[in-house]
Amino acid sequence: MPRVILHVDGEIIEQEVKENSNLVVLAGIKQFPKLKYGCGMGKCLKCACEIISGEEQLSSPNWKEERMLGESAHNGIRLTCQLTIREDIEITQENIAEKIKKEKDSIKLTK
Ligand code: FES
């Protein structure tokens, strides 16, 4: 089973999940604690995370991630509600709003 490591609010949550799990679905049924999320449908950004390791196992960002995250979706920031976990992965939700803002600002500056 894939092992998930989540950094959030100064804590590190480490847990095995079934292959092809969605962490927001698991959080919704109280089987994955501490994960921040909201709509579960790619519309609110509350579940955004930065991938620390294991990005290679993920499918490419979908249109919802691209709409919400812009270029950040291709720079290691993803919407957890849109991810299917197939192998070990380490993610962080620490300071994620600031990271997204910084990424968007740097894109504006280079245009
Ligand atoms: S939970 Fe709302 S975008 Fe993922």
UniProtKB/TrEMBL annotation:
One Pfam family recorded for the sequence: Fer2
Organism: Schinkia azotoformans LMG 9581
Domain of life: Bacteria
Residue intervals of the 2Fe-2S ferredoxin-type domain: 7-84
InterPro entries, alphabetized: 2Fe-2S_ferredoxin-like_sf (IPR036010), 2Fe-2S_ferredoxin-type (IPR001041), Beta-grasp_dom_sf (IPR012675)
Protein name (database record): Ferredoxin
A Gene Ontology molecular function term of the record: iron-sulfur cluster binding
